[in-house]
Specification:
Distance between the termini: 50 Å
Helix content: 25-40%
Number of domains: 3
Largest sheet: 5 strands, parallel
Radius of gyration: 21 Å
Strand content: 25-35%
CATH class of the largest domain: Alpha Beta
Strand order of the largest sheet: 3-2-1-4-5
Length: about 425
């Protein structure tokens, strides 16, 4: 079987890695891939993931299944075009992908179906006067969001009035977010702990993967601007069995049933970002694909055949699938370029990749890397995601930070507190 993964980040490297372990021994292709995917798959040139270019690769390499990694091609309708051509694909169509592509759509969808989320109002950028008046009336803290896709950086948490003004300036200028901020969502600030759910759905049936907790902010103790994600661990201790049941009944089921009832049955991975508040579980956001770096923490825990899972999803037979996961805990730490999520430099050689990869139960997933002859160089903001598995979160974190310590490139930056909240939950349970 020949499988094509669309994308070039750490999520796609993790997908290629887990598929390469399938008992079906598929030939895995990644377009365009990175310096890491070439170790477990064949990289294919794909400057822009437009439908006709992808269809040409499918024909040329006799592809049996396409897995679309990033959100932009899904929002652009790539999965629809592939299905129209009779190609098996795992990923939602354009309509369903709106749950990530338009925060205004997703908030209205949740309102229609009684799915708990923060109170909100939506404004067009041209309605600047009404927007400013509303934010002044609401005060701080408050959350401002670019409605469109913004690479995980479109949510601005404003704790003071000054930060509200700065956030409005970023969104209204159009310089930072472009068309993504043509529409702006203003949300009530939610206080609590975040967690992420991941659901494989074929449109009628679905299965759950382990929960995770991401670390969005660039700085230690969740300070500084949002990023695409600086680390994650799975499963998240805060998502107890009782909490998983609650989230399933109040959020997952009504979301999937709501999408189907509106004529857009969901086929692909549904990522639900949650906030556990004093008033109950609420949705922070939906994503129409695997999280990055959550995928690098979750996928190594899957012990069943991942290819069979994705194939069953694409063929509408997930009810036959058996999802098995190890009893281990997984931790992932992102190594980023100095300056990220702002401006940064590229092209620095990376040392220590082999040493880190040789540690027990430790994986190094590439994201922003490029191959330059025998040398791997930095080629993005989030460069690598080191992932490690152990019995218990403390062991996984010790192992992953050992791996991080072995890798070096100029300006390398990582958070030193990944998993801190999870450890606190573990200690509180021991006391109980």
């Amino acid at each position: 079987m020949n499988v094509l993964i669309i994308g070039s980040g750490g999520r796609e490297h993790a997908l290629a890695w887990v598929l390469s372990r399938s008992a079906q021994k598929p030939a895995v292709f990644v377009a365009p891939g990175n310096a890491g995917t070439r170790l477990v798959a064949t990289n294919l040139e794909l400057p822009v993931p437009q439908a006709e270019q992808v269809l040409a690769l499918v024909t040329r390499h006799d592809i049996d299944l396409v897995i679309v990694g990033p959100e932009q091609p899904l929002v652009d309708g790539l999965a629809d075009r592939l299905r129209e051509a009779g190609i098996r694909v795992f990923g939602p169509g354009r309509d369903a992908a709106q749950i990530e592509g338009s925060k205004a759509f997703s908030k209205a969808f949740m309102e229609r179906h009684g799915i708990p989320t923060a109170a909100y109002r939506t404004f067009r950028r041209r309605d600047e006067g009404a927007l400013r008046a509303y934010t002044k009336e609401q005060g701080a803290p408050i959350v401002l969001k670019a409605s469109g896709l913004a690479a995980g950086k479109g949510a601005i948490v404003c704790m003071t009035r000054r930060e509200v003004e700065e956030g409005l300036g970023q969104l209204l200028s159009g310089d930072q977010f472009g068309e993504a901020s043509d529409e702006i969502v203003v949300e009530q600030f939610m206080e609590g702990e975040e967690a992420s759910l991941f659901v494989l759905s074929d449109g009628t049936s679905w299965v759950m993967l382990p929960s995770a907790q991401d670390h969005k902010r660039i700085g230690v103790d969740d300070t500084g601007p949002n990023t695409g994600g600086m680390g994650a661990y799975a499963p998240a201790p805060v998502m107890t069995p009782a909490m998983m049941v609650l989230a399933t009944e109040q959020i997952v089921k009504p979301t999937l049933e709501g999408l189907a009832s509106e004529g857009m049955p969901y086929n692909g991975i549904l990522y639900v970002g949650l906030m556990l508040t004093e008033d109950g579980i609420k949705v922070v956001e939906y994503n129409c694909r695997f999280g990055d770096p959550e995928a690098q923490a979750i996928l190594p825990l899957i012990t069943s055949d991942a290819l069979e899972l994705f194939l069953a999803g694409a063929e509408g037979r997930l009810h036959e699938a058996d999802v098995q996961v190890s009893g281990m805990t997984s931790a992932c730490v992102v190594m980023a370029s100095d300056g990220y999520p702002g401006a940064y430099r590229r092209g620095f050689p990376i040392q220590g990749l082999d040493m880190a990869s040789q540690l027990p139960n430790t994986l190094v997933f590439h994201a922003g890397t490029a191959q330059d002859g025998p040398v791997v160089r930095t080629n993005g903001g989030r460069v690598l995601a080191v992932s490690a598995q152990a019995t218990g979160l403390q062991g996984a974190l010790a192992r992953v930070y050992t791996g991080v310590s072995l890798i070096h490139f100029e300006g390398a930056y990582h958070r030193t507190d990944i998993g801190k909240k999870g450890l606190l939950h573990g200690m509180s349970r021991q006391k109980e």
